[in-house]
Structures are given as structure tokens and as C-alpha cells.
């Protein structure tokens, strides 16, 4: 991850606007491992885990509509953020009032994976019991001895 590079490409749908840039993780001011150590430790526990967003370090500064006006998205812009090691995130800019609401959050994810996790746990326990049975050999008194 420390050697990763993230690219950004914005393509305008209603004009010929194109903006491209690259961010290199090697250029961030703090090492990701240091950030993790500062986030999680004696005073900050996260038993369910956490996500640490490091950002892309890229801020669009190319003027879009008027000279000196800076950048703003237009509806229909296609934003692509690719990296060879992870693939690409591609989104089209739309109004949140016109797209399907986001309803599948952390609780829904946990609920959807719990049955599979439960089955996996039960399978692993069965396999562990089978392995333990295979490794146990009764001694002369009939007591189980692990080899």
C-alpha cells in the first residue's frame, strides 16, 4: 500500500472537460502504519474493526466554467479512481434525490453474512472435533491421550 498510486479522471458529460491527476501514497506526510498505531491502541479499542481513510491527496484545481472560478462537478460527470492493485471505482455524478437510497449499511451486511459465518463456524468446530478424535489414543486405562 505504501507504494500505491491512485489516479483520478473526471470526464464531463455536457462539455469536453477532462481532469486527470495522480497521488502517490509514498508522498503522504505520515506512514500508514503510524496512523493505524495512533488510531488503535490502549486508549482506542474497536472490537469490530475500523476503516482508516487516507484520502487521495488530490484536490481538483483546474477551472471548469469560468477563469478563476475553480472546479465544480456537473451532473453526469464520470469520476474514475483506478489503482492497479485494487481495480477502479467509477461513479457518475447524480443528485441524491434522483438515485436509489442507500439502505444496505453495516447492520444489513452483518445480518446477511451471519448465517454463512454461523455455518462456517459450525463446520470448523465439527472438523476440529474430528481432528481431536483422530489424535486421541486411549492409554492402557482407557483414558484419552493426545499424541
Key phrases:
extended, 2 domains, two-stranded antiparallel ribbon, single chain, alpha+beta, 4-stranded antiparallel sheet
Please sum up the structure shown:
The protein has 147 residues and is α+β, with helices and mostly antiparallel strands. 26% of the residues lie in helices and 22% in strands.
Overview of the structural elements:
It is a single chain. The chain is extended and about 70 Å long. The chain has a four-stranded antiparallel β-sheet, with no helix packed on it. It has a two-stranded antiparallel ribbon with strand order 5-6. It folds into two domains: 5-95, no CATH class; 100-136. The protein contains two helices and six strands; from the N terminus they run E-E-H-E-E-H-E-E. It is an alpha+beta fold and 147 residues long.
Question: Structural class given helices, strands, pairing?
Answer: alpha+beta
Q: Main sheet?
A: 4 strands, antiparallel
Order of helices and strands: EEHEEHEE
| Oligomeric state of the chains in view | single chain
Total number of domains: 2
Poorly predicted ranges: none
Tell me the radius of gyration: 26 Å
Mean pLDDT: 80
Helix content: 25-40%
Shape summary = extended
The proportion of strand residues reads 15-25%
Number of helices: 2
Distance between the termini: 43 Å
Number of strands: 6
Amino acid at each position: 500500500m505504501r507504494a500505491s498510486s491512485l489516479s483520478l479522471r473526471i470526464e464531463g458529460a455536457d462539455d469536453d472537460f477532462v481532469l486527470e491527476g495522480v497521488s502517490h501514497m509514498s508522498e503522504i506526510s505520515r506512514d500508514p502504519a503510524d496512523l493505524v498505531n495512533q488510531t488503535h491502541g490502549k486508549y482506542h479499542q474497536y472490537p469490530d474493526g475500523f476503516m482508516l481513510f487516507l484520502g487521495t491527496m488530490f484536490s481538483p484545481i483546474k477551472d471548469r466554467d469560468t477563469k478563476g472560478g475553480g472546479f465544480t462537478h456537473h451532473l453526469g460527470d464520470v469520476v474514475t479512481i483506478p489503482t492497479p492493485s485494487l481495480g477502479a471505482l467509477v461513479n457518475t455524478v447524480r443528485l441524491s434525490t434522483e438515485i436509489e437510497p442507500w439502505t444496505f449499511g453495516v447492520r444489513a451486511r452483518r445480518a446477511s453474512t451471519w448465517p454463512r459465518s454461523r455455518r462456517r463456524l459450525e463446520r470448523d468446530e465439527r472438523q476440529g472435533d474430528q481432528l481431536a478424535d483422530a489424535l486421541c489414543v486411549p492409554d492402557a486405562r482407557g483414558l484419552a491421550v493426545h499424541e
